[in-house]
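Apologies for my clumsy wording, but could you write out the amino acids of a protein and the tokens describing how it folds?
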Amino acid sequence: MGMKKRTKVSAEFNMSSLTDIIFLLLIFFMLTSSMVIPNALNLRLPGKSSTPKNQPKFTPTEVKITRGGTYYLNGDKATRSQIEKVVRALKKEQTKVSLIIVPDDNTPTEKVVGILDIAYRYQVDAIMTDPKDRAPIKG
């Protein structure tokens, strides 16, 4: 008696369990990504603003930092504590205070961060520029 086995190996793959897992992962990542709060700087980009145009003009304060770590406040040599006192006084008398930070090439990073820290603590706008692109402040 010649009985043949009729068991053939099926080459089909069941995709239903794989699609379930993919949909669950998709839902998981969609929900968790909406809860993530990025830790980034609050930058104001140029463009239209809703502030009135008849605001009084103000002169920004320039802080230049040399390679050796010497500070110059509006052209006069100053220390970090003197700069902090000036920023505190300006913040008390004016509503809008702005610092322009001009570091030389190879300025120590901690010197620049020190001035940025002062601006952050007193909630002052700070702009850092390249000394080659900077024209002197007239005021």
Summary: Strands lie at 61-65, 71-73, 76-78, 98-103, 125-128. Residues 61-128 form a domain with the Nucleotidyltransferase; domain 5 fold (CATH 3.30.420.270). The helical segments are 16-35, 80-93, 109-121. The two ends are 112 Å apart (CA to CA).
